[in-house]
Amino acid sequence: MSVTSGPKTARRWFVNETPKGDLTDTTLALRDEPLRDLEAGEFLVRSIYLSLDATNRVWLSTFDHYMPPLLPGDPMRGFLVGEVIESRNEAFPTGSLAVGIHTWSDYFVTDGTDFSVYPGVDGLPLSDFFGVMTVAAPTAYHGLIEMAKPQPGETVVVTAAAGAVGALVGQMAKIAGCRVVGVAGGTDKCAYLVNELGFDAAVDYKSEPILEGLERACPDGIDVHFENVGGEALDAGLTLASQGARVIICGLISSYNNDVQDDGVKMIRNMIFRRIRMEGFVILDYLDQYPRYYEAILPWIAEGKLKYRLHVVDGIENALDALKLLYTGGNNGKLMVRIGDEAVRA
Ligand code: NDP
Q1: Are 228 and 159 a contacting pair, CB within 8 Å?
Q2: E strand or H helix at 334, and its extent?
Q3: φ and ψ at 184, to 5 degrees?
Q4: Does 213 contact ligand 1 (Cβ within 6 A)?
Q5: Among candidates 189, 159, 157, 226, which has minimal Cα distance to 309?
Q6: Centroid of ligand 1 to alpha carbon of 85 (angstroms)
Q7: Is 156 in the pocket of ligand 1 (CB under 6 A)?
Q8: 229: CA distance to ligand 1 center in Å?
Q9: β-pairing, 222-227 with 155-159?
Q10: What is the tens place of the pLDDT at every residue in 138-178?
Q11: Going edge to edge, which strands form the sheet with 222-227?
């Protein structure tokens, strides 16, 4: 069966060169590609939103990590949601919305591997469901609630606190009855944490050494340190950790642009003296737990206990420039690209 009523070509980002350090204008290249005909079991998707994630830079690295590395010539990979516009797959009928991992493309053909049908949640727009529930909220829930098990009265510190994951971690810790301190870059982000999200304190690592800021904000030490950044931030967390502290390694974004992995962490000895448990995770290992996580998270969103910001950039052609924002702190909230419009064809 041919792609009859849809487009004959797709715009798709490819890896042009393996980055050495920061992403540049030549790391990826946007090209037109012919769209092939559908085979049995396949369907054609019109992309609506592309999620931009800090880990996209990790995928472009050649060291051993948790996915096959993306090499020059490979299409760029990402999380997408889109409308099925032609289908030879009964599980994804025409007109349904598919969420999953594919290429940075405005149209693509897939057999549905790594895709699910968008479930639809009353009162939650597609943009919000996709931006918050696909990765950020389950990551925050798994790392904080399931792994750290925060107790009322404990002090929780989260880094990259104004970002997609960090903002949710801090608010979930407030729901758990904790005292919450966020670390973020700049006065606006810090004011947002305290004034709009209800954090107890915020440390602006761009205006003072992070250890000094955390010492002041956490006079009784840190019981849970939720790490999204690494380096100095993680070292400060280990330095100020209380007895029996849990240190959750969710992300190390400050080192994603480095070829040499040196996270600058020195205070390992406190893991012994303070009986610290430090543990990392990849949320993709817990997809089977999503229904359970959604049961907890969706009511919090409905009740206004979990707030979030979406940072939406328009146009697939702007995806590479938009991705760079994550590594400079230029994003305010969950970063995503609107590739096509939300309205589903009748
Ligand atoms: P964010 O929305 O938090 O955006 C990234 C933020 O990181 C920036 O806005 C910036 O905030 C901060 N940042 C970037 N570079 C640096 C740096 N050199 N030093 C200090 N801060 C920096 O992104 P996400 O919420 O999507 O991701 C947050 C973290 O969570 C990432 O490390 C990511 O890899 C990790 N993650 C892990 C998952 C897992 O399964 N383990 C799943 C999803 C995300 P600021 O302006 O405050 O500096």
Answers
A1: yes
A2: strand 334-338
A3: -150, 165
A4: no
A5: 189
A6: 34
A7: no
A8: 6
A9: parallel
A10: 999 999 999 999 999 999 999 999 999 999 999 999 999 99
A11: 201-204, 179-184, 155-159, 222-227, 241-249, 277-280
